[in-house]
Write a structure and sequence with these properties.
mainly alpha; 290 residues
Length: 290
């Protein structure tokens, strides 16, 4: 029961990230950089306390996969935060949960897995759901800000799918140690990106923004990942698959409760189709989370 509570808590924390990021007056790249730095420091200290020390030999064997997944993870955050800027938290979250379907499409190429009829059906269902989701009368209309935000969400989902696939290819590494390395690499890569593009502004954010940045780093990254990996290896895969959908559902509920976001009937139907197809096609995925 304890590990179920840990896992559920991590999903609710992951689901709240859109609410927190929405109020930070920095660029998406700057937020991703700060998130990665704080989160990786938190997890490095945790790994040291737990005496988790990945071997240099193992890291060397998986270095290509770790570099690709670390890069993808950092830019994945940046694109997801951009999605929050242009569309509702609900639309961004549902677009992001297209990732398992993208994994299905990429797996025959990158993992040499067979595309079964069931998985192909999942792809069709998810595409139908995405069509319903973008068919919105929201701010900016079909070809305005909403569609741009959903596009960023889908781009973030594509990079997250790449992280999932790279994690499937990684050998002889536990989930937490892989994530520590990925977060550290993501932080370094995004920091270089931010510096190359002019660096972080010298204006000190308000105390309100600083609190939100600390929450994103410590709560939504460090603590959430720690709870996730503390529990995920002690729960049955089917339990993990089912409970994982507390993340998008809680995100939708919190956005409705605290942001006043509303969904039309077609969008609700589209969201159900996307989540259902992701559940069926992504039950056996090995990945980090958001």
């Amino acid at each position: 029961m304890k590990y179920r509570l840990y896992f559920i808590s991590s999903m609710i924390i992951f689901g709240s990230i859109g609410l927190i990021v929405k109020g930070i007056p920095l660029s998406s790249a700057e937020i991703a950089m700060i998130r990665g730095i704080i989160g990786s420091i938190f997890l490095i200290i945790t790994a040291m306390i737990l005496k988790i020390r990945p071997s240099f030999k193992t890291i060397k064997k998986n270095v290509i996969y770790l570099l690709i997944s670390g890069s993808a993870l950092g830019f994945n955050w940046m694109l997801l935060f951009e999605a929050y800027r242009y569309t509702s938290i609900t639309n961004a979250t549902l677009s992001y949960y297209f990732a398992p379907v993208i994994v299905v499409l990429l797996s025959p190429i990158l993992l040499k897995e067979r595309l079964t009829l069931r998985k192909f059906f999942c792809v069709l269902v998810a595409l139908a759901g995405m069509f319903l989701l973008v068919w919105t009368k929201g701010s900016g209309g079909l070809f305005g800000e909403e569609l741009k935000g959903i596009g960023f969400g889908l781009a973030a989902a594509t990079l997250y799918a790449l992280v999932i696939i790279m994690n499937k290819l990684t050998k002889d590494m536990e989930g937490l140690e892989t994530t520590v390395i990925q977060l550290t690499l993501a932080s370094l890569i995004i920091t270089v990106y931010v510096i190359y593009n002019g660096g972080i502004g010298w204006e000190v954010p308000s105390s309100h923004a600083i609190i939100r940045l600390l929450l994103v780093g410590f709560l939504n990254t460090g603590l959430a990942y720690l709870l996730y990996f503390t529990s995920v290896q002690r729960l049955e895969s089917q339990t993990v698959a089912i409970f994982s959908y507390i993340d998008p559902i809680s995100a939708v509920m919190m956005s409705a409760l605290f942001m006043g976001e509303k969904l039309s009937a077609p969008q609700i139907a589209g969201g159900i189709l996307i989540l259902a197809s992701a559940f069926i096609s992504g039950r056996d995925k090995k990945s980090t989370h958001n």
